[in-house]
Design brief:
The structure is a homodimer. Chain A has helices at about 25-35, 45-55, 125-135, 140-160, 175-185, 235-240, 325-335, 380-405, 420-425, 430-435, 450-460, 465-475, 485-495, 505-510; strands at about 5-10, 40, 60-70, 70-80, 85-90, 95-105, 110-115, 170-175, 220-225, 250-255, 260-265, 270-275, 295-300, 310-315, 320, 355-360, 360-365, 380, 415-420, 445-450, 475-480. Chain A is α/β, with parallel strands linked by helices. Chain A has a 6-stranded mixed beta sheet with strand order 20-19-10-11-12-21, sandwiched between helices. Chain A has a 5-stranded mixed beta sheet with strand order 7-6-5-8-9, with helices on both faces. The radius of gyration of chain A is 26 Å and the shape is elongated.
């Protein structure tokens, strides 16, 4: 039976008499400790309301406890019934921040909202924001912006649920190491340069007022810890969401992005690694790359006979560009159709006239100008493809280095989780075709959706998660990719479609036998 | 080896490198935990200074930890050597407040000062102050006055020691239940009426800012808990000072005052009791009673042959009145000389003309007008004596009830501690003569001096004391005198000098055989 991070109780206390003249504090403490089976901390600030609430409630007050650094702590006591007992889970992404309002008593979600991260005004890229943080007032500005977002999101979600921000007694935040540093006003200057030191790995729960959060002032804020500068609390939350840390079976969890982050393990052991995969997989630096927004091409197929291109856009709108899942689909389809060869070179002979020269470089037209929203064609260039192959090769190599570090092979992996928004949209078959993901049975792949958000929610609803996270942190072995000499050699072998060693991709070899 | 409640360490941390890129926080935490052998809490507020102090100190920062509710907590970290590590112990009496400044690193006292409790402006008697606390702003006023005293005393003691109040990282406070309630701003209204409920028995350590103390803001304040409305932290501190809670031998600890408080026990068991003895023993309500200040008669003898009175005053000044120890001496001497009979009645025939009528009541002249400071005689009236006998009888009865409750007799008591300023001045032989204290070998009596202050000091220098106090609290059995039917019967028997049952006072019977 899971127990949420905050609980409300209404004990019936024995009335005072000469033979039982314990103080108000001890009377309530004994009742709560008996019900919770654990000691409960009573901070000084709780004593005045407690002294009023006990007699005024005829010795049956409402008491709210939160699970804090050293166990349960009394956070609210009153003679009349307070508002609902709420928690707020936050996936603090550098691009998007997602908030979930949770009814902790009932254990269900009351609503959720996504907002763009307001810090994007100082740079889409995290590095730009780190540079901005070094300016005078820079760090303070970044902190203020995100705290204000928390406050307005809490207000909006509560209003929609006919509740008040003061009803929120617990906040859990999953974010990468830099995002958490900004939230807490911690200087991130050592994060991005060797040897990549965060200020803190483990953030102890704190009171909301310490960073200016307008929820119940006696509530509690928990940030998922980080394992390193490039292995943040978002990934730990993802591990929790996957459940891999409690399973006998071996799982691999990856988060695909500019940085590729990988965790491999089970309930007994866990290794992790993060490395630069380059921004190509997210569409970032591609000529026609774009975020996964309405108008982005998210699915692409090329008919093997007619070479006709069909695509689907987000929201069904006229296309504006290519997002991550569309790019992987496209490269896989072009490869399967022979439009690019295993080295990534465009093959005009197989392209049915879709390869043209744009700004002096060969490019393959996905959507011609007359079909698009902006009247310009959507295409992929030869150099885009080279970048893509470098990124997918880096991704595969990171996975392979992790696998090798523990002496197993991909076949030994029972579950392969793909986290991030990307994880829900990526087509594993296509990612295998280009050699980005290992050639494993498709049913072992599972998109985790917003794993960080899911992990943050589950911590609110099961306080056991806090110790699970601690336990995972202490158990995880982090491989610093930058200190591994074999990475570059392996990468070179992976800069082919799907790989120089085709025996690693038997299903691809079988399906595309005509190419080899 | 005792360990103080706050410690300063200067660990040598391994410098950061790719193969050890733990955060600043984890790097320092690991070093401190290894040195302390316990986990250390790192509050959010410590992270920014920590991020600066580690590199600036070339990975060898100064760190101060305080022992808080759930173990060690980081309270200060810097790249340069901070001021001395100080603690402040406070005996928060209703009349006098005594402060001790302690060097926690060296383990010695740097100074101490006493101040009158400023709350006396609202009533010498605690009850008057409780009534004042009920008025608008009353409680706030009482709290502000005592907190201001703490702040000015800390400032003065630090100045004298060439230190600053920010150097104080720990404060321990021993006071009775009401004094602690005033200090913390807790309404004392239930303390003084049946069934005598304090707001809180156990006060968890808190940060100084919570009550406006101007010491190091990350420091810690500890108040000794109370066992009940009439059994406060001052007595628990006294138990600690006596060491009775760690001894195999049986001890009795009494604090004599308007309320007589008694603890009986050893390392295995402990019973406690408090009861009204009346203010007579402190000189409070006597015609010529006064506090133990210069000019107070503190010692009295009456020559058994000549009936000549000799006395000694505090400071050797001309007498102004009688303080507690003088009163007990006087009654014992008058009884031994036959000037009062066992029922307390004045015997003019034995008084050599010193019994006169003052304001219509018989009185015995201790110091004639020509010897005194104010030109009025110092005397004791017949009704003073009746009051005294009632008080000493109550005192003895309380001791007896406690003894009986555990089925032992006074002979079984190995150590008899008398706490309070009174305890240092009272002459046990005289107190036995009047039947206030039991007739035990004199060497078993020991004045404890300022036991509350001593206990507060020892908690600063030995953090083990905090758990000893918790343990004593959980083990102590409190006898509510008001619910014991046998008290009044026993009291009646004790309203004689020394007692109706002379077999209880064999040495008195032997010495004063001529009277019986």
């Amino acid at each position: 039976m899971s127990e949420p991070a905050a609980r409300r109780l209404r004990p019936c206390l024995p009335g005072p008499q000469l033979s039982d003249n314990r103080s108000h504090e001890l009377r309530l403490r004994s009742a709560l400790e008996e019900e919770l089976g654990e000691s409960v901390s009573f901070p000084l600030s709780m004593l005045p309301p407690l002294a009023r609430a006990l007699p005024d409630s005829n010795w049956s007050p409402w008491a709210t406890v939160v699970h804090d650094i050293c166990g349960w702590r009394l956070a609210h006591v009153s003679a009349t019934e307070p508002g609902p007992l709420l928690g707020l889970a936050v996936d603090l992404g550098s691009t998007t921040v997602v908030f979930y309002l949770i009814d902790l008593a009932g254990g269900h979600r009351m609503g959720n909202r996504s907002y763009p991260n307001p810090q994007r005004a100082h740079g889409e890229d995290i590095l730009e924001r780190i540079l901005f943080a070094r300016k005078e007032e820079g760090l303070l500005t970044l902190q203020r912006e995100v705290v204000e977002l928390f406050n307005s999101a809490a207000q909006e979600l509560c209003s929609a649920a006919s509740a008040a921000p003061e009803d929120i007694h617990y906040v859990t935040v999953a974010g990468n190491t830099t995002m958490i540093h900004f939230l807490l006003g911690l200087a991130p200057s050592h994060i991005c340069r060797e040897p990549y030191l965060p200020v803190a790995n483990r953030i102890e729960p704190f009171k909301p007022g310490e960073i200016g959060l307008n929820i119940n002032p006696e509530g509690c804020v928990y940030c998922f810890p980080n394992v390193g500068s490039y292995f943040g609390g978002d990934l730990l939350a993802g591990i929790i969401a996957s459940g891999m840390h409690k399973s006998d079976e071996i799982s691999m969890l990856i988060d695909v992005g500019t940085n590729a982050e990988v965790i491999l393990g089970n309930k007994d052991w866990m290794v992790a690694c993060a490395g630069a995969a380059g921004p190509a997989l997210e569409g970032g630096i591609l000529a026609c790359g774009m975020r996964a927004q309405p108008g982005a091409i998210e699915r692409v197929e090329i008919d093997s006979a007619t070479r006709e291109v069909t695509y689907r856009t987000i929201g069904g709108e006229a296309p504006k560009g290519l997002c991550g899942s569309g790019i992987i689909d496209l490269l896989a389809a072009m490869f399967a159709a022979g439009i690019v060869d295993p080295t990534g070179k465009l093959q005009p002979s197989a392209a049915h006239g879709r390869i043209v020269e744009i700004n002096g470089t060969p490019a393959y037209i996905v959507a011609p100008a007359e079909e698009t929203a902006h009247g310009e064609p959507v295409y992929i260039t030869q150099s885009d493809i080279k970048n893509l192959i470098r990124s997918k090769g880096a991704m595969y190599t990171i996975l392979n280095v992790v696998i090798q570090s523990v002496g197993i092979s991909f076949e030994d992996i029972d579950h392969f989780y793909v986290a991030g928004a990307f994880g829900n949209y990526i087509d594993p078959q296509k990612a295998i075709t280009i050699g980005m993901l290992p050639d494993m049975p498709l049913e072992r792949f599972k998109g985790l959706g917003n794993a960080a958000g899911e992990g943050a929610c589950s911590a609110l609803l099961d306080r056991q998660v806090f110790s699970e996270v601690e336990e995972v942190c202490s158990r995880i072995t982090y491989l610093e990719m930058n200190v591994r000499g074999d990475f570059m050699n392996q990468l070179t072998a992976a800069l082919f479609l799907p790989h120089t060693d085709l025996s690693r991709f038997p299903t691809v070899r079988r399906q595309l036998a005509h190419l080899f």
